[in-house]
Amino acid sequence: MRQLLNLLISNRQADRRFDVVQNQAGNEATLYLYDCIVATQAEADWWGGVAADTVAKKIAAIDAPTIHVRINSPGGDVFGGRAIETALRQHPAQIHVHVDGLAASAASFIAMAGDVIAISPGAFVMIHQAQTLAYGSADSLEKTASLLRKVDATLVDTYVTRTKQDDGRVRDWVNAETWFTAAEAVEYGFADQLADDSAGVSACWNLSAYAKAPIAASVPPGHQAPPKQVPSEPAAPAAQDDQSHRQRAANQRRVALLNLGF
């Protein structure tokens, strides 16, 4: 969870984007997932990022036989990512995923929902273990650890199903926080093909929340590398006199801190 919070805080001012665009003929829609991922709109209002409940509703409302999902995301909440993945898998449209820059963490298994996955040269896919914050007795901490292992097992299953790689090999990749170049993603089955071009929009992410992020993954072509720094706490929302606003803000913070992050 600390990793998720750091990721959200350090990218609040990033050039990010979430949008759904349908062509004039109505036979194709494009979903741009260019942001960190959180579970609910309340969390997005507080921490930033794109909310899974908002994305899922947008996906459900698409009436087109083909959906293009363009991804450039450093990841986020594991269950928020699962909700977006499920919304894509359950939609009757043909899903074409395009990894334009980065499909890291939760964004990596959203990408796995594609019927066809293309990755741009220079883009990356990253997979790793789920994380959270925990406190309490030894028994409660052991229960939390057990839950994290179950989450990791579901992630491994998703990647194995898509890539056809050996279970043990995929588990080792997850445990090690593994970054795949575009060529490696195709080689190991995380993508079907290299993209001829990219119609996406560049976004430069601060990936200091991750231990092994390569510089190339955080700096798209034409950008300078941002300084690696420890994220600071976000500024509090502007003060309001009414008690209801203060209570709502406090509730949003509790929700964010209790969520399981990826």
From TrEMBL:
<keyword id="KW-0963">Cytoplasm</keyword>
<keyword id="KW-0645">Protease</keyword>
<dbReference type="Pfam" id="PF00574">
    <property type="entry name" value="CLP_protease"/>
</dbReference>
<dbReference type="InterPro" id="IPR023562">
    <property type="entry name" value="ClpP/TepA"/>
</dbReference>
<dbReference type="InterPro" id="IPR029045">
    <property type="entry name" value="ClpP/crotonase-like_dom_sf"/>
</dbReference>
<dbReference type="InterPro" id="IPR001907">
    <property type="entry name" value="ClpP"/>
</dbReference>
<feature type="region of interest" description="Disordered">
    <location>
        <begin position="218"/>
        <end position="249"/>
    </location>
</feature>
<keyword id="KW-0720">Serine protease</keyword>
<protein>
    <recommendedName>
        <fullName>ATP-dependent Clp protease proteolytic subunit</fullName>
    </recommendedName>
</protein>
<comment type="similarity">
    <text>Belongs to the peptidase S14 family.</text>
</comment>
<keyword id="KW-0378">Hydrolase</keyword>
